């Protein structure tokens, strides 16, 4: 018999249920709690397609529901787990739902869940190699294999896991600064003659705006370069901007190419950008947080041509590799560069191990979760060919969605081989005000699918639908188009 879904937590008696759980000294309660978790790991992926994709609860209502937890009295663990499962099921936008077409949050595979569980259980400390030889070497092996997919030399490149793409991008900027301006490592940016400046496209991820401030470069140290109608960075505009800045005494030191923009999935012309960056003596970083996985597909790999020429790459395993968040990855073609940027030593850390780098001395983080175990298990289970099949399936679903939208009178407005489709309908564009926002709100209200809106070069919002789940099939796409058509008829 399947366990029943627990009722909401509010208005429950918070006194301990002494008949159910006499306290932490006995084992039945944790055993019951674990059984509940294991049941949910089995049930949730099987049942998720029948759940609403989103939730409409307000912050006020959510806080009122949680107010019952005052933490004055202990709560039996099995009951707490039951209530938490209920909250997660009923009060979430289910980003692992096969009809969630939103941000880059994919369905997760069992191997990734198991890897995260073992990480939590053993809680290895990765700051020093000597504390976790197995995990450090598992991560090194996993990253080396993926570095080879990018076209880097696995034997020489530096690579490590990060909390996500934002940290990996920050790492890229910091390593480039240390490499191009070694004087700044000791004396700070004030020691650099001229103003260090780096370049991104107008469609680049906004983590770089934060990074400009975090690094002390400031808003003025970041240049946004125009894009063409295809939403890709224009190499000629980049070349002109870098030359003009150099003439004015600035110090162009870094160019960022994006492989899979968040808004429209555009892939910058990396090969041409690499040539421009080299001509100006600048470091090339490729933000492939989502699109990096395209390197695993022979069909999609040509879109990343030139990525092997980059100095560093961001790639998030928690996007298209379908592992739980967060699992960013940073790859650097120059093995000593990260150590130059982050190298340090202290007497309270264990002595270094010969032949191995201590992660605390070559990365942004100090103590760090064993992020790589879930990626290792997933890669071990599927293999590279298994991942290729998952990625190409989603790319095929992207192509199918474009066809379905066209058959229903929608206009696709972005051009990418990746499964991210931006579209609008002529009926939504009549008059001075677009109805896209109202349409998206209606779709989300019905909770059968989840899409978002985005503003691209035209300055008008369009519907953004990204296929992020390996479980998404043609039937899910039919529901998506039906919901879009229903919402269009409702709002126009």
Helix/strand layout:
Elements: H1 28-47, H2 59-66, H3 77-90, H4 110-122, H5 133-150, E1 158-162, H6 165-180, H7 182-187, E2 195-201, H8 207-214, E3 222-225, H9 235-247, E4 250-258, H10 270-279, E5 283-287, E6 312-316, H11 317-320, E7 328-332, H12 337-342, H13 372-407, E8 411-412, E9 420-424, H14 436-446, E10 452-455, E11 461-466, H15 474-491
Parallel strand pairs: 2-3, 2-4, 4-5, 5-6
Antiparallel strand pairs: 1-7, 6-7, 8-9, 9-11, 10-11
Helix pairs in contact: 1-3, 4-13, 5-13, 9-10, 13-15, 14-15
Short description:
This protein is of the alpha/beta class. It has helices at residues 28-47, 59-66, 77-90, 110-122, 133-150, 165-180, 182-187, 207-214, 235-247, 270-279, 317-320, 337-342, 372-407, 436-446, 474-491; strands at 158-162, 195-201, 222-225, 250-258, 283-287, 312-316, 328-332, 411-412, 420-424, 452-455, 461-466.
The CATH architecture of the domain at 114-379 would be: 3-Layer(aba) Sandwich
Binned, the helix content reads 40-55%
pLDDT < 50 runs, ≥5 residues: 1-25
Rg on CA atoms, Å: 25 Å
Overall form: globular
Mean pLDDT rating: 91
CATH topology type of the domain at 114-379 = Aspartate Aminotransferase, domain 2
Report the span from N to C terminus. Answer: 48 Å
- Output the strand order for the largest sheet: 1-7-6-5-4-2-3
The largest pleated sheet is described as: 7 strands, mixed
* CATH class membership of the domain at 114-379: Alpha Beta
Share of residues in strands: 5-15%
């Amino acid at each position: 018999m399947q366990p029943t879904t627990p009722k909401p937590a509010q208005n429950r008696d918070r006194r301990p249920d002494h008949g159910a759980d006499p306290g932490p000294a006995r084992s039945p309660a944790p055993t019951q709690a674990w059984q509940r978790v294991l049941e949910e790991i089995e049930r949730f992926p099987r049942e998720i397609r029948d759940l609403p994709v989103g939730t409409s609860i307000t912050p006020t209502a959510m806080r009122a529901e949680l107010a019952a937890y005052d933490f004055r009295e202990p709560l039996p663990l099995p009951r707490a787990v039951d209530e938490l499962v209920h909250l997660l099921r009923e009060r979430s936008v289910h980003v692992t739902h096969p009809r969630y077409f939103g941000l880059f949050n994919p369905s997760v595979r069992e191997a990734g869940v198991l890897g995260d569980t073992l990480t939590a259980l053993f809680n290895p400390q990765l700051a020093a190699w000597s504390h976790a030889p197995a995990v450090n070497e598992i991560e090194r092996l996993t990253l080396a294999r993926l570095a080879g997919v990018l076209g880097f030399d696995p034997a020489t490149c530096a690579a490590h896991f990060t909390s996500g793409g934002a940290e990996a991008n920050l790492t890229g900027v910091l390593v480039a600064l240390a490499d191009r301006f070694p004087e700044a490592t000791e004396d700070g940016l004030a020691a650099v003659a001229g103003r260090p400046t780096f370049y991104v496209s107008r469609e680049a991820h906004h983590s770089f705006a934060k990074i400009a401030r975090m690094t002390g470069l400031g808003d003025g140290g970041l240049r946004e370069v125009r894009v063409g109608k295809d939403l890709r960075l224009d190499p000629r505009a980049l070349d002109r901007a870098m030359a003009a800045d150099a003439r004015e005494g600035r110090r162009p030191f870094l160019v960022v190419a994006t492989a899979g923009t968040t808004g429209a999935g555009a892939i910058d012309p990396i090969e041409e950008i690499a040539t421009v960056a080299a001509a100006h003596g600048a470091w090339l970083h490729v933000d492939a947080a989502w699109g990096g996985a395209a390197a695993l597909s022979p069909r999609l790999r040509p879109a990343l041509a030139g990525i092997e020429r980059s100095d560093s790459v961001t790639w998030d395993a928690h996007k298209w590799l379908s592992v739980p968040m967060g699992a960013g990855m940073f790859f650097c073609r120059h093995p000593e560069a990260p150590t130059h940027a982050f190298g340090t030593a202290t007497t309270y850390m264990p002595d270094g191990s010969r032949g191995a780098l201590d992660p605390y001395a070559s990365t942004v983080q100090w103590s760090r979760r064993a992020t790589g175990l879930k990626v290792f298990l997933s890669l071990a289970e599927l293999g590279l060919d298994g991942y290729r099949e998952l990625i190409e399936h989603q790319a095929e679903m992207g192509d199918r969605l474009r066809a379905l939208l066209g058959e229903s009178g929608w206009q696709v407005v972005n051009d990418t081989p990746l499964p991210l489709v931006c579209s609008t309908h002529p009926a939504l564009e009549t008059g001075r005000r677009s109805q896209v926002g109202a349409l998206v709100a209606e779709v989300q209200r019905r909770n059968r699918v989840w899409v978002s809106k985005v503003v691209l070069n035209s300055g008008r919002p369009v519907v953004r639908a990204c296929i992020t789940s390996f479980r998404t099939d043609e039937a899910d796409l039919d529901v998506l188009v039906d919901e879009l058509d229903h919402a269009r008829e409702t709002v126009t």
